[in-house]
DNA sequence: GATGGGGCTTCCAGTTACTGGAATGTCAAG
DNA sequence: CTTGACATTCCAGTAACTGGAAGCCCCATC
């Protein structure tokens, strides 16, 4: 099958498939006489594997590692789990960072009256003028 | 003050300050006879403004908009709020995406025994072999 | 006066994971 | 025979920096 078919079966755009190949993430596939890449269903399995792994946020380096483990029939599941745990920790870090941003931002938005007046706690906070509400001393 | 001092007072590295200037986010500052950038405390205010805005995840384009609003004394707070709401929505989108990844990943990790055996639900899921537990039919 | 260690300048390149576009070649249908 | 959809390669751009090289500038010390 051609790259277009492999693309629609794997969910990866043709450009991305070529890109992964160029990066060495995938072996170069066989070519037809006209120079077109020819993909087997085993190739499509690899592509889908990558598509799912990337969908879970694994970096391309992680994907490389996971593909190597996938191909290694004598792998230990502990090695796979380690890669996944690393990724989980990374996701947790990002979620925590975003939640912290969200907390501050939501507070500022709530305190902004959002009308035609120029007076604005969002700008004030960014300018370092006012402290956010939850950083102020509680009343009594 | 020189760029190093402005950097430590604003929390932005010198490289980043020059980068922002090159992008047009900041006006080029005055220069001393030796060619060094000279920053005023007003300049440092701008830098800190940027540092905080970037810390809340605003893009550089958003920062530009916010700086413009900051400088516009006749702005309406509604305009500022609109930028912030956009950013909040973006953050929520990212959090949702990460949480979905986290959900799947945590489930896979939990189901992987993580020992020396090659058998691994993480690999199986990526390869499209097994369905995750929460996608399976509940028992009875 | 030479030297050494910062800090400052510029510019170029690399990062991540693609994506868009140009120029060109191939194939099947009408 | 032409049109349109596919395929190929290569170059460039994205976001927001960051690292490094090559070269001034300034101050202190020997």
Automatic annotation (TrEMBL), chains A, B:
Coiled coil: none annotated. It comes from the Bacteria. Keywords: Cytoplasm, DNA-binding, Transcription, Transcription regulation. SMART domains: HTH_MERR. CDD domains: HTH_CueR (cd01108). Its main location: cytoplasm. One of its GO terms (cellular component) is cytoplasm. Pfam families: MerR, MerR-DNA-bind. One of its GO terms (biological process) is positive regulation of DNA-templated transcription. Signal peptide: none annotated. InterPro entries: CueR, DNA-bd_dom_put_sf, MerR-type_HTH_dom, MerR_fam, Tscrpt_reg_MerR_DNA-bd. It is found in: Cytoplasm. This is Cu(I)-responsive transcriptional regulator. It comes from Ferruginivarius sediminum.
